[in-house]
Amino acid sequence: MIKNCVKRKLIITTFALLVFLITLTFPKTEEEIKNVTITYTQNASFPIYLLDKDEFVARTSISLKSTDVVKQAKELIAMMTIDNASAAYIPNLFAPILPKNTKVLSIDVQDTTLKVNLSQEFLNIPKGYEEKVLECLVYSLTELEGVDSILLYVEGDVLDTLPNTNEKLPLLLTRDIGVNKIYDLTNLKDVTKTTTYYIAKENDFSYYIPVTLLSNSDQNKVEIVIERLKTNPNIKTNLISYLSANTEIKSYELLEEEIALSFSPVLYEGIVNEDLVEEVKYSISLSLMDTLHVKNVTFVE
Questions:
Q1: Can you name the residues that pair with 201 across neighbouring β-strands?
Q2: Cα 141 from Cα 74, distance rounded (Å)
């Protein structure tokens, strides 16, 4: 009797297990599939400034894992560091520039200033690359949300001079240091500084190279930027601007954090590709945001 009972339970259990396994092998119905929730995780695309093949500081983009400013800053610095494992994630056309084995000792945010303390390896910058290193570092880190300036330390001491030339540095490093600088000066008084973003192309890949002009021009900065975008700079022949040479500014209004511009109808003269239209707008916007320290550029018809 007991044996039969045990046998019956064993048969029932085995059969139930068999039915369960069979149901796992059948495809789910359409209704079941609709009820499945799928979560997508997408890394944020973020601007970073690195050296291109011609050793100009160039703007490209990468993916960051974090949305926290301090963690993002650490990721950016790692990607900019030579032979760091994270540098493998930067696009092939660009190269990291921070000296090998540079480490982040600490990072802190105070108001709009990012305090960055780096290891002594940061001082091993090859001669002739000091300004490029600072430009890449400052321009990348000031892309972080709410960060306008960098206070740079090495082993706890404020970096107030360039390692090789001993050139004095401002206490707070901002985009006012300029990038890929060219000079058109007759004197050191009344210097106007403007930054223009040109397009560079490598095969089918486009990216942007900012060029800071220091001049004694008496034009306002908006006019200088637009005039520069109507021509090509003399530092690199393959930089492109699709802005028509006949373009004229009809009017503009500069507010606290925004500028609204109206152009003559020939702004996109000769451009039939919608992507190129966007590149023209983007070049103008990046240039004016950098030069005027505004957050938004509006194109008024």
A1: 206
A2: 10
